[in-house]
């Protein structure tokens, strides 16, 4: 089993899942040129990470990959629990992070063509994005007031939020008013699997 990843990208989540599973796997760091190459596009026409290859089976999209790994290795409890309701709750938060919060970060990394070269419009788009991201992160912060994690224990959902908090720091978003994130980050980084992936991806 092989995972293609960009350091610090959302592929950090399945990378951590593979560490938690504890079975042999390969992880190959790729760059922007690699994921647009004909060879890579043949496996993932979106030209994005993560990409998981298991034998002759290639799978993209985080939720699909995480569900596949969870089905193969239920003992790892990647969603924090194997009960239907607990997994559903963790999956709900994962869907929110993957579909809503992740998408809101897009203007920081890739501007629409009509905004390129227009400084005023770029600033406006990114300010709107910042407001949107912070609004949604506040929802996550509120949850952490009464919960240590987004599953019954540390799970892939938490790692997704942790990854995006790294993006927030990278693009200069101030989340200091969201006071539960500091201890949350500390709890996530205390995990041996997360720590191993941080080392592998050059993030530590």
TrEMBL record:
InterPro entries: Glutathione-S-Trfase_C-like, Glutathione-S-Trfase_C_sf, Glutathione_S-Trfase, Glutathione_S-Trfase_N, Thioredoxin-like_sf. PROSITE patterns: GST_CTER, GST_NTER. Residues 83-204 form the GST C-terminal domain. It comes from the Bacteria. Residues 1-77 form the GST N-terminal domain. PANTHER family: GLUTATHIONE S-TRANSFERASE GSTA, GLUTATHIONE S-TRANSFERASE-RELATED. This is Glutathione S-transferase N-terminal domain-containing protein. It comes from Glaesserella parasuis.
